[in-house]
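Here we describe the complex-level prediction in full. Unlike the single-chain runs in Section 2.1, the two entities below were treated as one system.
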Amino acid sequence: MNELVGLVALDTQGMIAVFVSAILFAVGVLGVLLRRNAIVVFMCIELMLTAGNIALVAFSRLHGVEGQILVFFVMAVAAAEAAVGLAIIIAIFRHYEVVDLDRFGILKW
Amino acid sequence: MVISAWLSMLLPESLNKMVDIGSTLDRVPSLLLSAPQEAGAASFQPTLPFLILLFPLLGALVNGLGAFLWRENKVIPSLLGPGALIAAFVVSVFNFIGMRTVDLHGPEIVSLWTWIESGDLRIGIDLQFDQLSMLMCLIVTGVGSLIHIYSVGYMRSDPAYSRYFSYLNLFVFFMLVLVLGSSFPLMFVGWEGVGLCSYLLIGFWYENRDYSNAGKKAFIINRIGDVGFLVAMFLLFVAFGTLDMVSILDAAPQQLTHGGGLVTGVTLLLFLGCTGKSAQIPLYTWLPDAMAGPTPVSALIHAATMVTAGVYLIARTSVLFALSPITQIVVATVGGATALLAATIAIQQYDIKKVLAYSTISQLGYMFLAVGVGAFTAGVFHLMTHAFFKALLFLGAGAVIHTVHEAWSGNDHHGDPNDMRNHGGLKAFMPKTWAFMWIGTLAIAGVFPLAGFFSKDEIIWSVGASGYSVLWVVALLTAILTAVYMTRLMVMAFHGQNRTFGHAGTEKAKRHLHEAPIVMWLPLAVLAALSLMGGWVNVPEALPLPHIAWFHHWLEPVFAPARTVAAEYGVHLAHTAPIGGGEALWAGLSTLLAVTAVAVTLRIQASKNVPLESEATALTGFARVLHDKWYVDEFYDRLIVSPSRALWRGCWKIVDSRLIDGAVNGLGHLMRLLGWVGGQLQSGRVTTYLLVFMVGALLVLSVL
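The structure predicted for the assembly as a whole is:
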């Protein structure tokens, strides 16, 4: 209920930003689920993070500056994650010479 | 310090009595000469009674240790084994002399320590000393000592010498526990113990499959009887609330109704125990197979220990048996039937030890016949004389087997040294053994004036006088058969042509057959002397001989309660046999019958041409039935062994393999299936994981 109250309280620009964020997030989720190229999946994860950032910024119009500060945290973590993730993908590529997630089923017992 | 504390705990009063041994020693000459009933004698104080048990136990333990530590040493077991028994015998003799000086009317109880205490129930390690247990102690340790000494010669080349003496001592120890135990559970310990030791000794040469199976057979058949003993013990506990023998036997005439269901049940169950331990129908089949053990063991089982346990048990609980006429008839009938059956089988056996084994069963039948008709003294009397001559016969047979075996072992000659078809003419080579064996034969045949005459005649007379005419005829018939099979054994083994090395091996026989060593024939000589004179402790008044009633007087206090009960319920003895004639006449007639039987058999058997074992043709007709032991073993095999085998096999194949194993394995398979299903969830694909993750997240969100 509270969230809906927050959403109603937003102005038009904020509304647009939240919808863009939602769409972006949905695109990211679908990309993660449907695409097989590890790089693309990785990029979609970044999309989802970005969508989160946009939502944070949008709501900071209502709640003050904390949301925007949090965005910087997310960016820092995303940068670190990007470095680790890309390193893993490169390691996999060196080993298998592909980055197709369907060909890559060793994440089990 | 610790040891002395332990000792004082173990033997609280007895230590103080150590001092008494000296004074008893001083009194010995006067004691031996004095009359049994010394006026105003104080109560009987056993001298170091625990030593009777301790010596054989220590012998067993040290020899048992020796079987591991000094396996090759033969000197230590040779000294320790017989030594332990002789020491126990000496202590028994001291106590016997001590008991003679007093007028003992009830058992003297020596409490060592408490074994079980629970609520009102107290079972102590208590020893009871009375005339019966004292007599049994003397027989067990005395005859046992001789058998131990003999074993030194017989077993000298056996690799498991120390183990042998360990078992032998343990056997005697358990027999003494059985005899001296003053409560049913303690007696049961001895009862089971002799069963265990018989298993160990019958299967002594366990490398041979048949021998170890014979040991198992003895143990298992004994277990059947033991169940009877156990259940009888439970019934007695329910009825009396105690398991102490003295209190039960004292209270029995008042508490139990004469001929009532309880006392009949208890005595029948006790008798079932006796049929197992003392080899009576229907549980006798283990005894002939018990010949698988070394021959001195057979002598020990048959003469001094084990098989006499059943007779002892009935004599001990004579009051209960006197209270139950039905059981008495059963006991007498079974005894008579066993005596006759075993005697007929003995006639057609070729194995010298088998003949003696069936002879033992037959003689035990006599003893049960006696206790069955209420002649407890006669039964125990025959037990004693039988211990003498059966030990003599077994040890003599052992000497023969030993000689033949030794003669063969150096000559690459194979055969069964027990088979009398391989003996013959041994009189020339072993004159001492021959003479002693003849004494034993005449004694068991009941020829005047040897031991067996007095004991057997008293039994036959008691049976006749009690009015059991059929059993009386059976007893007489068995007496004749006894003379026949024993004479047959003597002739086949000792007379005629020697067949040890075939018909033409006389020269070889002369070189290799020889008399047994002194350590073996000396015990034979002692036993022969006992067989000659052992009967003279009890000469009936009716005979035209000096009347000696020492044995009767000695056991009188033990059987007095039973006698009182019998008199109360109008059991009386006739003065004539069922077809007339007094005791003296029938005693004369029976010894005449025995002598005739011996003479006739001697003639017939001597004229027979005995075939060699290797050339023997199969017997035909009735002789074959007797040789094959009336097919009782086969009958049991069909009736009990095979069906139960099939049953347990079925249990194994169906219940065990299918049901139990199926349940256990099925559970395992189920778990593996579940694991496989769980494993399928983990595909290893990131996309699948992410999908599941997302669905899960959506589910959580929708709930929120």
